Input
Amino acid sequence: MPVVEIKQLVKKFGQFSALDGIDFELDEGQVHAYLGPNGAGKTTTIRVLLGILRATSGEVEIFGKDAWKHSVELHRRLAYVPGEVNLWDNLTGGEVIDLLLSLRKDGKNHKERRDFFCKRFELDPSKKCRTYSKGNRQKVALVAALASDAELLIFDEPSSGLDPLMEKVFSDTVLELKKEGKSVLLSSHILSEVEKLADRISIIRAGKIVQTGSMEEISRVAAGRTLEELFLSEYKEAN
Output
């Protein structure tokens, strides 16, 4: 059974169809990259998965359970990092991480993993969040997600604001998660990162999946073009 399974997902806002018949699967131990230009429907898909938005029609399941009806239960098994992170300015990074981890109520002691990832991402958790740069705010969200030991990690532009060194640290961490059998949904504009990490790729344009498959299948579709060239060709068709 797939970790994430989406069948004919439609999400409308009034007369506008943000998602128009999306089919999507993410298997255990797999990294599935979800690509597309801004406004294509990537974040809307993720918000439906998280139970923030309710689907207009279609089926959306995580671990075999309805993502909307069982969202609270499912959130104990997944972690999410957005591309724009908002924190409590008067709390330290460590306090925010501990607060987020305490909400999981899974009975696990996350301190060892928290300290490990703070060190790996070179985050000083003693500083107030108002003093953090965008990159350090992103690190707080990443550490909280990774320290949770979640089975499914959903990353929506997770490298936003990170310097090249920390991008490399993030990529190495995702490869380790895959070896541990964890599943990752990755939305990213850094295509070199995607090529290195992804087992499968789906490209969305104007609310529809226009390309999907394994890296090998996508390479055959690209017919000698790089992933970037394939992506740009799909983007140009959208305009």
